[in-house]
Design brief:
heterodimer; A: two-stranded antiparallel sheet; 2 helices; 23% helix; 12% strand; B: 3-stranded antiparallel sheet; 16 helices; 50% helix; 8% strand; globular; binds iron/sulfur cluster
């Protein structure tokens, strides 16, 4: 599972951080700053929820 | 819009049969015609969206505009009300990011996002706790039954916003009073207009003062400093942003506090469980947000191109109302939506909207709700309603749903 987070699209609602705090963080500007782009398998459901909740389609996962 | 006299088009908003449930028509429309026509109070016809999936789709669609000054933007006021409240309307039409689209919206929003990061909001928590404690002290000291709305629901968000915006202590009482008058039913339109002007002038002066002096360490101060480095907003837009933050963060949270307290008091079993284990609160709050979805029709838009959705074509320049409440009661997405189920994971509700305009203050609202509910349950274990919940004065006539007064015994 590989994550792409588009900071240009991010609107800083932090839904991703709330859903998957082990994977996502926010920087000083409040924009998404992934802690890892290749999360462990166990984080999968949380990451998928984050993608579902993100209001601006800033997150994408490529399953591998 | 071409049709003129079609009497079959239902009027919006529709009436509620029960204060705790959405209008029954939502359910029927969702099954039959999830994007349907409604007549707005000013006589214009708009599209009403009642299905969760379509609501999310439309709110995330770049072909819809949030421009409130567009002639087809669905308004909730009748022509007369509009004229009478013209001055009050100034408050909500001053330019700020909630009215903007595309790149301009993005620039306005980005200059603010850092202020609302989870870390920033977490740092505010101790101050929120102090404000909540002081508000509860006042409610306990007041003659019984005391009004929860006056002492807690209105006071907490108002004081938190003062803190955030950097309103000096001496002026907070005035600020709170004006803000309260804007949402009170017991004041005349004339008084409300006066309060609105006073608030506008007040924020105008506050911004001007902060622009002149040394940068202050509060949201407006930091916004001004950041805007100096990379200019995004005019002076007027900074004032508009302050007004927007005040309005957006005030009524919404206030009404959620009132409705949430009633929900807790009416569900004694859950109340006891949450009182014993406050870690159950965050999911309960998501469920309350879903269940009440108080910003019922604020997500209004205008199509900037033809959009095919839900079996219809919304034409360019037609108005759209996306009912968050209807969407959050979609039984394809939330099983038995009429059941207030504090343990269902309801995080995907659209009570804060969806798409690029999704509420920027949502995590501040969550903290305020958590601190209020947790502290009330802990400090006032005997809290009870002084009148039956069905008899409370619900805000059937307001743009944001809620309750005017909640008499409680402490
Ligand atoms: S949920 Fe989406 S918009 Fe919100 S912070 Fe994360 S990436 Fe950004």
């Amino acid at each position: 599972m590989h994550i792409t987070a588009d900071r240009e699209r991010c609107v800083g609602a932090a839904q991703c951080v709330l859903a998957a705090p082990a994977v996502f963080d926010q920087d000083e500007e409040g924009l998404v700053a992934p802690l890892t782009v290749d999360p462990a398998g166990a984080d999968g459901p949380a990451v998928r929820q984050a993608v579902h909740l993100c209001p601006s389609s800033a997150l994408r996962i490529d399953e591998e | 819009m071409t049709e003129t006299l079609d009497h079959d088009i239902p009027s919006f908003p529709m009436a509620r049969a029960c204060p705790m449930h959405p209008p029954a028509e939502y359910r029927e429309l969702r099954g039959r015609e999830p994007v349907s026509r409604v007549r707005m109070p000013d006589g214009q016809v708009a599209w009403l969206v009642t299905k969760h999936e379509l609501a999310r789709k439309l709110l995330a669609d770049p072909r819809v505009s949030a421009d409130r000054l567009h002639p087809a933007f669905p308004g909730r006021l009748t022509a007369e009300q509009r004229a009478a409240t013209e001055r009050v309307r100034r408050l909500s039409t001053r330019r700020s990011m909630i009215h903007l689209d595309g790149a301009e919206h993005g620039a306005h929003r980005k200059i603010l996002t850092g202020e609302f990061s989870l870390r920033r909001i977490a740092a505010l928590r101790p101050r929120v706790q102090e404000i909540v404690d002081r508000s509860i002290d006042e409610m306990l000291a007041a003659p019984q039954p005391a009004d929860l709305v006056e002492h807690v629901s209105q006071a907490v968000p108002s004081l938190v916003i003062c803190e955030l915006l950097g309103v000096p202590h001496e002026q907070r009482r005035d600020f709170h009073e004006w803000a309260g008058m804007l949402v009170s039913r017991s004041v005349s339109i004339r008084e409300r207009a006066a309060a609105s002007d006073a608030l506008n002038d007040f924020l105008e002066d506050l911004v001007t003062e902060k622009e002149r002096g040394e940068p202050t360490d509060d949201l407006i101060g930091r916004l001004i400093a950041r805007n100096r480095q990379t200019p995004v907003m005019t002076h007027d837009e900074i004032v508009g942003t302050a007004v927007m933050l005040l309005i957006a963060g005030h009524q919404t949270t206030a009404n959620m506090i009132s409705l949430g307290v009633v929900a807790l008091l009416e569900n004694p079993e859950h109340r006891a469980r949450i009182a014993a284990d406050p870690s159950l609160l965050p999911p309960a709050i998501e469920e309350m947000l879903r269940y009440f979805s108080v910003v019922e029709n604020a997500p209004a838009r205008v199509a900037t191109e033809d959009i095919e959705i839900g079996g219809v074509t919304i034409r360019k320049d037609e108005g759209i109302v996306v009912s968050g409440l209807a969407a959050d009661w979609d039984d394809e997405v939330f099983d038995h939506p009429d059941r207030l189920d504090f343990e269902r994971g309801a995080r995907h509700h659209v009570a804060f909207g969806y798409g690029v305009h999704q509420c920027l203050g949502q995590n501040l609202a969550r903290v305020e709700l958590e601190v209020v509910f947790e502290t009330l349950l802990r400090r006032v274990p005997g809290l009870s309603l002084a009148v039956p919940a069905e008899e409370l004065p619900y805000k059937d006539d307001a743009g944001i749903y809620g309750i005017y007064r909640v008499p409680v015994n402490c």
